[in-house]
Amino acid sequence: MSKREENREEEMLSFDELKKQVTADEADFTEDAEVQQLLSSLRDIPAPDEAQASDSEEENEAPTESEPPDEAQNYKSIYDDVLRAVSESKPAEEEVTGRRSKFLSGKGQFVDVTEHYQEYADLTPQSEEMPEEPAAQPSESEEEPRAAEPEKQYRTFNEIFKDTFLKIFPNRHDTVGEGIRKTVVNLSVLALAGCLVYFGIYGVQSYQASKQLADIKGQIIDDSTPSAENDVWAEFLSKYPNIRLPEGMMAKYAYLYAINQDLVGWIKIPNSLIDVQVVQAADNATYLKQDFYGNYSRYGCPCMDYRNDPKYLNKNTILYGHHMSDGLVFADLKKYKDIEGFQASPVIEFDTLYRSYRFKVYAAFITNSKESDDNGYIFNYTVTDFGSNDKFMEYMAAVDERKLYSTGVDVQPDDKIITLQTCTYEFSDARLVVVGRLLRENESTSIDTSLAVANENPRYPQAWYDKNGKTNPFAEAPKWTIGAGTTDVIADDATAGA
Is residue 427 included in any domain, yes or no? Predict the structure, then answer.
């Protein structure tokens, strides 16, 4: 034994000496409960040499109170209890801890796990852990009966239609207020739908009428020179050798005549929308709802009175045309209700198939088309021939009585006039009539429109006074008629072209 070991052995105290020393110092720790508990446990620990016994004696004999177990066995028992508690509570491998070492029951020792925490955690289940078995599913025979799910209902078309009908239209299940509300809504929807349909149709027809008029205008040939007219005739006769043309007809309207042999001329009023063909039929009603191509059209086609001679103008040439709200046909005649309208368009241009004519606007007036609107009287402005110049001048005096203003244009007994008629809306079935006087030979087309003067008291039909709440000052005035011995009598269809 080395000297160092001998010194160390001398310094070590025996267990009895250590116990005595602790007992001697007991008085110094009496105030600390934990120390008292530790001292109490030390008193019961026997000396190591006194606790030794054989293995057979430990198994066969139970320790008595006078022979306490030796210190090694006591420590081992505490160790085993701690180990058992740790093992039963949770596998050490699954412990989530921040310690640098942990106890592994499989190895029976603590190991350093500092490096294990440097890596990603391994979440793979340990081999010794058996996966949980899924709960046993009851067999079909053991399943508890479940409430039957309601079967999806499908409605028939009749059921859907009936429900929709009851929601939209009034029925006996509705309250009074609900019935009134549905009625008002339905009437509003129907009115709106009707307006949409009407304006839709009207818009289509307006477009078609405008396009048709443009196509018709495209058929007019410019024959400004005699050589050009000869070329037109040569080309036309080569295309339509079987068309019989009126003798003396102007070449410019040849192609239009080939389309419709009812064509008699063309009317145009500068500074207005009136620029359209004129036809003539066996009566005045044929072209009320028929276009130039013979198709139905609410625009109709402007026509000359069937009694007029399109080659040699009568004393009074009468043209009828509709007043369309989009401004087509004769709608722009309404401008002549005012002096300003006359001043903008004081001349009417009218071509027959044979010759071009110019008329100066003489008068514009409003009249009736039904006898009931003027005390059983209709002012007959549709007379084509008056029989005498005196009768003609009587008629012009009756026009002067009715005209809305004087234009400064005069009329002589041997003059010829043109009459344009369309609808107006001062009262039901009212008519607007514009009269022009034929330009005399060598007369200038210029008109001093500043001479126009308003008529302060024009003569209207009785219906106009009734609508405006006024007294008719002409109720007892003489009523002009064509008189006996003439062939012209106003007919029902004579004013139907409005």
Answer: yes
